[in-house]
Amino acid sequence: MDTKNKNRIIIVAPSYSPQIGGSIVLHKLCDILNELKYDAYLTTTQKLNGNTDYFILNPTFNTKIATEINTEKDIIIYPEIERGNPFQAKHIVRYILSKSHLVEVEGGPHSSTWGGDDFWLYFHSLFYDNIKEKNILHLIYSKVDSYVNLGIDRNIEACFTYRKTPSPPKLYHPQNSIEINYNTPDKELIKIFNQCKRFYSYDTETYLSVLAALCGCESVVIPQKGKNKQEIMNNQPTFKYGIAYGIDDIKHANKTQPLVREHLNSLENKQTQDTLKIFNKIFIHFNI
User: Fold this and answer.
1) Given its phi and psi angles, is residue 163 left (phi above 0), alpha (psi -120 to 50 degrees) or beta?
2) At what angle do helices 21-35 and 260-285 cross, to 10 degrees?
3) The pLDDT of residue 1 is above 70
4) 76-99 pLDDT, tens per residue?
5) Lower CB count within 10 Å: N or C terminus of the chain?
6) Confidence band, pLDDT 50/70/90 cuts, at residue 3
7) Phi, psi (deg, nearest 5) at residue 248
């Protein structure tokens, strides 16, 4: 694909953090675009506590930092938490990673400060608001190369996480289980998931459930009231295999655990093609 005459794509993001999903997605988008031979960069704004002098990248991604903006030619991608158009650029994409753009704040919701010609791109159909055309680009960072089953003795009964469900109505993990919090680094997670027999997640959306399965740890999502297995699977394509939805579903998790890695690889291949299609559409939208 020859993109040498295409305009640059500048993605506005915070520094990379393995604990923050939004930062992972934005940096991964830049990585994919560069692999597709677009000329893509990352930068930041004051809103995102950014300073390009201290901007952190993921060394495994194909990313680079933009130190200046061409407001007439560059395509700027803002996450939904950014109000207005700080760079006063002409071609704007709003990448909606949550529904916070609809939340009323002082001066109205963030989306009320966006331009009429902005291209709205949704990370997930869950965040679709029926305002603009339904353009979806769901990206994952699978980590299949680093999260593996090391084949060591599993001498710890269980580990667990609360994440976005800090006060579950009922606890299922044993009292001596290891708690996994937001700040647990990858190296430590890999060790825990290889030492533990089972992982309990009270958060029905965290990717930790998939990472546990990749390491050969039994992975159990504790269902929340009002959410059933099919709904969770539809909303989380990475959860298709290797994960139990409640204790009674352990058989399914164990039976399908060998399929997790291949499934994630197929999702990553698909997302590359999805990115190519959506950005062809974006260039047409801006007539450039």
Assistant:
1) left
2) 70
3) no
4) 999 999 999 999 999 999 999 999
5) N
6) very low
7) -70, -10
Q: What is the pTM of this model?
A: 0.87
Can you read off the two tokens belonging to residue 149?
């089953």
Q: CA-to-CA distance for 57 and 31, rounded, in angstroms?
A: 11
d(CA 3, CA 144): 29
Amino acid of residue 114: W
Both tokens of 162, joined, read: 């609360």
251 Cβ contact list (under 8 Å, min separation 6): none
What is the C-alpha to C-alpha distance for residues 31 and 178, in angstroms, rounded to an integer? 34
User: DSSP label at 259?
Assistant: G
Q: What is the DSSP string of 139-192?
A: -----TTT---------EEEEEE-TT-SS-SS--S-TTPEE--TT--HHHHHHH
Question: For 30-43, how does the pLDDT look when each residue is reduced to its tens digit (9 = 90+)?
Answer: 999 999 999 999 99
Euclidean distance between CA atoms 256 and 244, whole angstroms: 10
